[in-house]
Design brief:
It contains six helices and seven strands; from the N terminus they run ααββααβαββαββ. By secondary structure, it is of the alpha/beta class. It has one domain. Strands 1-2-3-4 form a four-stranded parallel sheet. The protein has a three-stranded parallel sheet with strand order 5-6-7, with no helix packed on it. Helix 6 links the parallel strand 5 and strand 6.
């Protein structure tokens, strides 16, 4: 491929989906999943030929970024493996307050693009939602269809309860989620259809 072919290709531009909102993120559509028995498996514990037991699980990305950093660069390599599972959550790219604003927006853009890509390939993809500060509300809830089932992580939020609940309540207003899959113990003040999942049970005991 020549230089022009590379810079005008979808793999570089990531422009195959209709841009939504101020930043032109790809949209994650509302999809239905059974909510009566949510079980999750860490992406770092998935494998190419999964056992029947774990094929009933959804895949989460509440792990260190380096464990899934290649997904955005090589998305085609993920489809067959993750299609084995009941559903997949979009990667939880870090969104820390100390990150420059452009990096935070980039993390959201990657999250949405991968979700749209997986949905386009026939996977059930649930958007993982995160936020940093008040300013992040201007982009961190964008391009998620209203009424979606969403996922949130509680790791690291216990010491910043006020800021977390502020973002959580804003998410409820903007997305109006059907359900919130909560990775970790929720705060008692969290409203909505919260489905808590024990993070320890998301790791395989024996490979």
């Amino acid at each position: 491929m020549n230089s022009k072919g590379f810079r005008t290709g979808h793999c570089f531009l990531r422009d195959e989906f209709q841009p939504i909102g101020r930043y032109g993120f790809a949209q994650i559509r509302k999809q239905s999943i059974p909510l009566d028995d949510i079980r999750l498996l860490a992406c770092s514990d998935t494998r190419e030929n999964e056992t029947p037991k774990y094929k009933k699980y959804g895949v989460h990305f509440f792990v260190d970024d380096f464990r899934f950093s290649g997904i955005y660069s090589h998305p085609h390599t993920t489809v067959d493996k993750y299609s084995q599972y009941a559903f997949v959550m979009t990667p939880d790219f870090s969104l820390y307050r100390e990150m420059p604003r452009w990096r935070q927006i980039e993390s959201i853009g990657k999250n949405r693009w991968i979700g749209a890509y997986w949905q386009n390939k026939g996977l059930l993809a649930i958007p993982t939602v995160s936020w940093s500060d008040y300013v992040s509300y201007g982009y961190c809830f964008d391009s998620i269809e209203k009424g979606c089932v969403v996922a949130i992580g509680m790791i690291g939020c216990k010491h910043e309860k006020k800021a977390f609940l502020s973002g959580y309540n804003e998410m409820l207003l903007r997305i109006e989620p059907e359900a919130i899959i909560c990775f970790g113990d929720p705060f008692p003040e969290m409203e909505g259809n919260v489905i808590a999942v024990n993070y320890k049970e998301s790791r395989k005991k024996v490979r």
